[in-house]
Amino acid sequence: MGGCCLDKLNETSLACGLMATLMWFRRDLRLYDNPALNAAISSATEAGDGRVVPLFVLDENLWGPSGDARRAYLSASLASLDESLAGNLIVRIGEPTKVISELVDKHDISSVHISADFAPYGIARDKKVEAALRALNKNVELVPTGSPYAVAPGRVTKDDGTPYRVYTPFYKAWLKHGWRNPAEPLTSKANWWAPVKSESLPPLANKPQLEVWQADAGEDAAWRRWADFKKKHLAEYGEDRNRPDLDSTSKLSVHLRWGEIHPRSLLAELNDSKSQEVFRKELAWREVYADVLFQTPNSVNVSMNPAWENMGWNFGKTEKSALAAWQEGKTGYPFVDAGMRQLLATGWMHNRVRMVVGSFLVKDLHVHWRYGAQWFMQQLRDGDLASNVHGWQWVAGCGTDAAPYFRVFNPVMQGLKFDPNGDYVRRWVPELSHLKGEAAHEPWESSDGYAHGYPKRLVEHSVEREETLRRYEASKKK
Fold first, then answer.
1. Tell me, what DSSP letter sits at residue 363?
2. Running DSSP on this structure, what letter comes out for residue 16?
3. Among candidates 419, 411, 459, which has minimal Cα distance to 435?
4. What is the rounded distance in angstroms from the CA atom of residue 297 to the CA atom of residue 289?
5. Is 361 helix (H, G, I), strand (E, B) or coil?
6. Annotated catalytic residue within 282, 431, 442, 467
7. Interacting residues of 449 by C-beta distance below 8 A, sequence separation 6+
8. Whether the Cβ atoms of residue 118 and residue 293 lie closer than 8 Å to each other
9. Residues 36 and 28: beta-carbon distance below 8 Å
């Protein structure tokens, strides 16, 4: 790049006719296969000797409700992105409309580029930003290119144009629709980025365990994880994916959540073998839930099956106490408690265990699914609104493609089946480390099962299962 004032570029202005575009990173914290970033660079170069302002806005509406693990991971991912951008990532703390308007007004920015957001809050936020840009009267547009999904929500429909409500037909139509190839890689990383002043992220909680996995954040880490999983575990994925005692899942959910890797990039590397088809189907669950949330935005808080609300969901002293015990991993059911403690310690939980702990909260403790969904979104590093909400509605029995109301996961049998040697339980519940093999799942059956302070069962599963079925039957008559 040339220009008479190249050495004088600073926060005051991007002067001397040097045009810039603004790349607003959100759920796409990567450089490879990022159509919005490619569009921002292309637009800047077409405008002449231009640069890109790479921006991340720390929105308090999203940062505030997040737990320590979620915040720590995002901070680590942004640090990785900043390194990829040669230290040029601009972080601003505040309301996106105000932040972006001020940057556009202060600098000679010709366009603002984003990856489209399809969640309710994101859609409303982007409309506000569009309105604010129009109000500046500078002819600056908000340009969406691509999305966090292989197929954007709303594009896969039935022949009559209506959305799918069941996974299997959606999956078949999704495959038929297909997706684009990964976007062309960037040819260079030099001299694209505008030197605009950045702010620092708020300080994080001082918790040593959060540092253990922070090195796993970022685009490079996502690709390392994919390469390792593909080499060591993908061939057996169909058989081992339900085993939380094994390191057999991809753990790519967090990388997908923050857009450190795009699902299209993964799909491009899959073949038609049985095990890889299973993995492709798992990626499709993320897509169908995004589509359902886009089509029914009120499902963030409202059960898809309204009759389900007729069960009389109280949240009194008993339910509050039960929720707290569940959150702390002190229900007296080892498989459930292991999952909840894993969540607290790492900000992640195995998917099979997520279904079991969800069923236990709703159908054993009789706490509304919304409270579980809220806790997960606060704690999970990979907390994705659409997948979280509709995963909970599925397990509760009130969502699309829902598990039948009479399907109540038995927390003991699930543990014995998917953690047959008790290794997962012993790892996360040290009070039971003295119990060998499957005995760890039923401490009440051992004379010394409670010798190290493990809590007694909060409820009796068989009793609460019958109570759940009774409530479901009664709700049909209302």
1. I
2. T
3. 419
4. 11
5. helix
6. 282
7. 432, 435, 439, 442, 443
8. yes
9. yes
| From 95, 223, 313, 431, active-site residue | 313
Rg (C-alpha) for the chain, rounded Å, is 24
Buried b (16+ CB within 10 A) or exposed e, 280-299: bebbbbbbbbbbbbbbbbeb
Tell me the one-letter amino acid at 234. Answer: L
d(C-alpha 140, C-alpha 125), whole Å: 17
Token pair for residue 165?
């409500």
The per-residue pLDDT for range 190-240, each reduced to its tens digit, is 578 888 889 988 888 766 555 555 668 999 999 999 999 999 999 999 899
Q: Which of 95, 130, 305, 351 is catalytic?
A: 351
Q: Catalytic residue at 369?
A: yes
Q: Which residues of 9-45 are buried (b: 16+ CB within 10 A; e: fewer)?
A: beeeebeeebbbbbbbbbbbbbbbbbbbbbbbbebbe
Instruction: State how far the Cα of 441 lies from the Cα of 413, in Å rounded to an integer.
Output: 9
Q: What is the DSSP string of 66-95?
A: --HHHHHHHHHHHHHHHHHTTT--EEEES-
Would you say the C-alpha torsion 26, 31, 32, 37 has a positive or negative sign?
Answer: positive
pTM greater than 0.90 (yes/no)? yes
Amino acid identity at 406: F
Whole-angstrom distance, CA of residue 135 vs CA of residue 236: 55
pLDDT tens digits along 394-408: 999 898 876 666 789
Order of strands across the sheet that contains 20-25: 90-93, 51-58, 20-25, 109-114, 141-144
In angstroms, the CA 373 to CA 386 distance is: 11
pLDDT in tens, 253-266: 999 999 999 999 99
CA 335, CA 444: separation in Å to the nearest integer?
A: 14
Q: How far apart are CA 180 and CA 262, in angstroms?
A: 12
Of the listed 192, 213, 285, 394, which one is catalytic? 285
Q: Note the helical H segments in 296-430.
A: 317-328, 334-346, 351-359, 369-379, 385-396, 411-418, 423-428
Tell me the two tokens of residue 270. Answer: 């899959």
Question: What tokens were used for 254?
Answer: 């967090």
User: Which residue of the set 179, 226, 348, 392 is catalytic?
Assistant: 392
Whether 313 is a known active-site residue: answer yes
Structure tokens at 275: 């095990």
